[in-house]
Specification:
The chain is mostly beta strands and 245 residues long. It is built from two helices and 14 strands; from the N terminus they run αβββββββββββββαβ. The protein has helices at 2-18, 200-209, and strands at 21-23, 29-32, 35-38, 48-59, 62-72, 82-86, 101-111, 116-126, 140-149, 157-165, 168-177, 180-187, 194-198, 217-241. A hairpin with a 2-residue loop joins strand 11 and strand 12 (180-187). The longest helix has 17 residues, at 2-18. Bound molecules: 2-acetamido-2-deoxy-beta-D-glucopyranose (NAG) (3 copies). GO terms for molecular function: cellulase activity. Belongs to the glycosyl hydrolase 12 (cellulase H) family. One of its GO terms (biological process) is polysaccharide catabolic process.
C-alpha cells in the first residue's frame, strides 16, 4: 500500500513537471486537452528566425498557451501559424449549428517595436464531413482577426466595412487562395484582447449574405498568430470554443 502511495505521488509529480511542454520544430504538435497545439512554421524559410510554443495548462475545454517568435526579412511573408486546433468541434453541417460559443483572452507579454502580425481564428469549411484545414477538402477559410499590427492585409481585397457582428465592428476581406475562398473579418480599429462571442453569428452572416451553402461542413477551428516580422511573446491566458447542434 505504501509502495502504491509512493507510486501515485511520483506520477503526480511527473505530471506537474511535464505540464508545461515546449515545442520547437517546424511541424511539431502536442496534445493539449481538448485541443492539439502545433507550431506550423510553414513559411519559416522565407526569412530568418525562430519560434517556440508552450502548452502551459489545460482545464476541461480551456487551454493556456504561449508562443515566442522572432522573425526577420521578407516583411510581407507570413512565417508561421502556431495554433491550437479543437480535436472534436468539427464535422457538423453549418445549417445544424445552433451556437458556437468561444472565449479568448490573450496579451503580448513582450513585443518589439513595429511588429507585423495578426492574432486570429482560422476556421475551415468543406463539402465533406471529414477533411482537415488547408487541404483539397477545403472550400472556405474564415479568418477572424482580433489584432492586425504593422499594416498587414488579409488575402484578397476589402469588400465591406462597418459590419457589426458579435458585438464588434469588422472590415470584410475576400479572395481566393489555392482551391478555397477566404473570408477575413478584420477588427475595424484597435485590438480585442478579451473576446467573448458566438461564432455562429459569423457563420450565419456568411450563409445569409455571402452565398456560403448551409450544407457546408465545419472542418476545423484553429486559433493562433501569423507573424511576419519582429519579436513577441504572445500569451493566451484562456481559450475555449465549443459547437452545439
Ligand atoms: C517566452 O517568453 C516569455 C516572456 O519573455 C518567457 O517568460 C518564457 O520563458 C519564454 N518561453 C520560452 C519557451 O522561451
Ligand atoms: C526557441 O528555442 C531555441 C532552442 O530550443 C532557441 O535557440 C531560440 O532562441 C528560441 N526562440 C525564441 C523566439 O524564443
Ligand atoms: C481570462 O479568462 C479566464 C477564464 O475565463 C479568466 O479566469 C481570467 O480572469 C481572464 N483574464 C483576463 C485578464 O480577463
Amino acid at each position: 500500500m505504501f509502495k502504491t502511495l509512493l507510486a501515485v505521488v511520483f506520477v503526480s509529480v511527473l505530471t506537474l513537471v511535464r505540464s508545461a511542454q515546449t515545442i520547437s520544430g517546424q511541424y511539431d504538435c502536442i496534445p493539449a486537452g481538448a485541443y492539439t497545439l502545433c507550431q506550423n512554421l510553414w513559411g519559416e524559410f522565407a526569412g530568418v528566425g525562430s519560434q517556440n510554443s508552450t502548452l502551459i495548462s489545460t482545464n476541461g475545454n480551456a487551454a493556456t498557451w504561449q508562443t515566442n517568435w522572432t522573425w526577420a526579412n521578407a516583411p510581407n511573408n507570413v512565417k508561421s501559424y502556431a495554433n491550437l486546433l479543437h480535436n472534436t468541434a468539427k464535422g457538423m453541417q453549418l445549417g445544424s449549428i445552433t451556437t458556437a460559443p468561444t472565449a479568448w483572452n490573450w496579451t503580448y507579454v513582450t513585443e518589439s517595436q513595429g511588429i507585423r502580425a495578426d492574432v486570429s481564428y482560422d476556421i475551415w469549411f468543406g463539402k465533406a464531413q471529414s477533411g482537415t484545414a488547408a487541404t483539397s477538402a477545403s472550400s472556405y477559410e474564415i479568418m477572424i482577426w482580433l489584432s492586425g499590427q504593422g499594416g498587414i492585409q488579409p488575402v484578397g481585397s476589402q469588400i465591406l466595412s462597418g459590419l457589426n457582428i458579435a458585438g464588434h465592428t469588422w472590415n470584410l476581406w475576400t479572395g481566393p487562395n489555392a482551391n478555397w475562398q477566404v473570408f477575413s473579418f478584420v477588427i475595424s480599429s484597435g485590438e480585442v484582447r478579451n473576446f467573448d462571442a458566438d461564432l455562429n453569428e459569423f457563420f450565419q452572416y456568411l450563409i445569409q449574405s455571402q452565398g456560403v451553402a448551409s450544407t457546408q461542413y465545419l472542418q476545423a477551428i484553429q486559433v493562433g498568430t501569423e507573424p511576419f516580422v519582429g519579436s513577441a511573446s504572445l500569451l493566451t491566458e484562456s481559450f475555449a470554443v465549443s459547437v452545439n447542434t
